[in-house]
Amino acid sequence: MNPKTFFKKQNLSPLIQVVSSLIIIALGIVTLTLGIFWDFFYLVAIILLGTDLVTRTFAFFTSKRTRFDWFGLLFVLGELALVVILLLHGLWFKQIMTLVFGVWIVFNSCCRFFAFVIAYRDRLSIRVYLFLDGLFSLIFGVILLSNWTKTTYLVNNLIGYYMIIFACFQLFSAINLLSNNKIKQSIRFPLPIFIAAFLPSQVVRTANELVKNDQSILSKPDEVADDTNKVFVNFYMKVKGHEQFGHVDIAYEGKIYSYGCHDPFNRMSQMLYGDGVLIVANQSEFIDFEINQRDKVMVQFECELNSDQIRLFKQGLADLMAKTVVFDFPYKRDSDCRHYLTRMHAANVEATYYKFTEGYFKTYFVLTTNCVLLVETLFQKTGINLFNINGIIVPGTYYDVLNTAYNQENSFVLSKKIFRKTLD
Fold it and tell me: Are residues 140 and 196 in the same domain?
């Protein structure tokens, strides 16, 4: 597959979006009235597991190897046992998935309570909302877990409502496009977190497959032209490790604005929580560092905003910077170049580091106050909003938002480019 074909703009017709949205709404209503989600999900799971089992079994007995693959045999036998159990005890599948859903709800409530603690410490006005949100989620999660063998219908109804709400947002967006964007405020509904979280790693895998067939994808970024109406949103990804979930930053007038937990002396060891640090760097040098020295795949969306949106964007950027002070990173304490800012400094990337004196970004939390929130906060100023249903945002969520916008007619997203390290 040619990368130019894969990343080509699809120009999805608003009429197709209207039809697909109406179909999803109808499926949501059927799910609510007949309670068929779990039966449908069960059928899909059996088909997917059965197909994978056949494929792996065929590959196991036909592949040539120097020694017997015990791990492969155990995997095939384990998958076979799982298929047999699901076929004999279909109800178990529904009950176990309900249990998983309840655990997820409780986990989400714990994240909200942790965000509340941060907001309380940093004296943020949102702290009351975070506490109530966490409390409501905890109560609902406990209800599911307390009788998870009999509450499958609750999850079925939640998914039905989710489908209807998701489709209504898509329908609103399509109607707005048909009316030549008469409604300037754009609100987008996110993908489910389980899909969005792993979207960046899937993009990387696709890019790596393209590389095998087309060397033209291996290139350095072009020099960034100064354009006061253009904003660039960059996604950096790897296949494995914590970086498979991706990182996102925003660039304007040749400068990168990248937010993260970059102070190793004031954070948790796993970079889940700590002082928030904003990097303001030369765009070309920063991107070159990420691609060629850190071996990342980058997808860049070029967005064109109108004069009012640019004015609001610049105002939001100024408000953001007004809450910062320069962070003088102690390079001498990292003589082995183990940490990110030291390695960037050693690579001669022109950059200044900042910490926040107040506001949301003073404290970084990987699931809420993260790199995505910085991009979302700045884009909110332009009238482009993400409807965040569960408080947790990951780079894949925003990737899908921009990718969807890119594939719409008359979109503010002009181009989508992919960059990867040049092979020697």
Answer: no
Considering the entire predicted model, what is its pTM?
0.77
262-303 residue pLDDT tens: 999 988 766 788 999 999 999 989 998 998 888 888 888 888
Task: At 270, list the tokens.
Answer: 């796993």
In a domain, 170, yes or no: no
Q: Which domain holds residue 147?
A: 3-165
Residue 126 neighbours by CB under 8 Å, 6+ apart: 119, 360
Beta-sheet strands, E only, within 70-215 = 186-188
Are residues 77 and 212 part of one domain?
no
The answer on 153 and 28 residing in a single domain is yes
Residue 209 lies in a domain: yes
pLDDT in tens, 329-352: 998 888 888 899 999 999 999 999
CB atoms < 10 A from the CB of 240, how many? 8
Three-state SS sequence of 137-159: HHHHHHHHHHCCCCCHHHHHHHH
Domain stop point among 130, 165, 200: 165
Amino acid (1-letter code) at residue 385? N
Q: Within the chain, which residues score under 50 in pLDDT?
A: 1-6, 214-216, 218
